[in-house]
Amino acid sequence: MTSTRPDLDPELSAVLANMPLMSQLDPEILAQVRQYPSPPVEPLLEGRSVERREITVAATDGAQIPLSIFSPADTDRMTAAPCVLWMHGGGMVMGDRFSQIDIPLEWLDEFGAVVVSVDYRLAPEATGTALVDDCYQALLWIAENAEELGIDATRIVVAGISGGGGIAAGLTLLARDLGTPAIAAQMLVCPMLDHRNITASSRQFSGVPGLWTTEMNAFGWHSVLGGLTGDDVPAYVSPALAQDLSGLPTTYIDAGSAEVFRDEDTDYATRIWAAGGQAELHVWAGGFHGFDALHPLARVSVAARRSRNDWLARVLGPADPA
Q1: Extended strands (E) in the chain
Q2: Whether the model pTM is above 0.90
Q3: 46 alpha carbon, distance to own chain's centre
Q4: 214 close to 205: Cβ distance less than 8 angstroms
Q5: Residue 95: CA atoms inside 13 Å, Cβ hemisphere, count?
Q6: Are 161 and 211 within 8 A, CB to CB?
Q7: Contact predicate 316/155, CB 8 Å
Q8: Structural domains in the chain?
Q9: What is the pLDDT of residues 132-172, one digit of tens each?
């Protein structure tokens, strides 16, 4: 394992210096981490003109999957709204539908988007394609209830961060292969795409306390795979395995230069281009994993969020009359 790795951005480095960090994750530590809930969503909604609904949708095995729906409160819209289906981060083993919710709530503010955040089941209790399937049922529900939600079904964006970014990528592959529902774009924020840990960046952060290390990544993937190995691992679970990346909606991918997922994310964008698709890729110098979610006011974080918002503005374009 190499001890050489990109330096952190000075503002971000100062943040990490004051945080308790770990390099390992195991069942006992995971149980302890899960005892701490996400910050409450209510303070984020204060001062926003937003309506909130809580519903559940049935998974393919009958389990009830909670969805939180955040809609602009104005009822005088002359056009149907875009919709963002949000998948939270947490390495697919922790977190809930309110994790990092401040990110898509910016898109509610900026674009009048309806935000739907899905509480997909977590590994190791759920394994294999179960997590992606949970999110697919949420996507189907959105498409089937577009009129009631006041959204434009041609402007549904699938978005996620970290483990949720990997699920978003798998979900987009699944929707493409099944032919429905239509996805206008996918936004993959530092996504977790490859279970193999074979890239340079996946090895650069071994034994180093951080937010998501080589060892933590291996634990996360072991939890998700649930015994699946080799050719039995579906691309919907580990999207880097997909042989064909053609026919995907326009894609945004970003990562930090100082994180495990840097190289697999860069490779995924490259392969989309090679397949004739459209992707925008940003690798933020000095960014650790999830840097802008943890320290949104750092200059590099402000730039990262602005770039996503600018891309979404171009992708969504003007709305058609409802």
Answers
A1: 50-58, 64-72, 81-87, 114-118, 151-161, 185-189, 250-256, 279-284
A2: yes
A3: 24
A4: yes
A5: 23
A6: no
A7: yes
A8: 10-30+49-72+80-315 (3.40.50.1820)
A9: 999 999 999 999 999 999 999 999 999 999 999 999 999 99
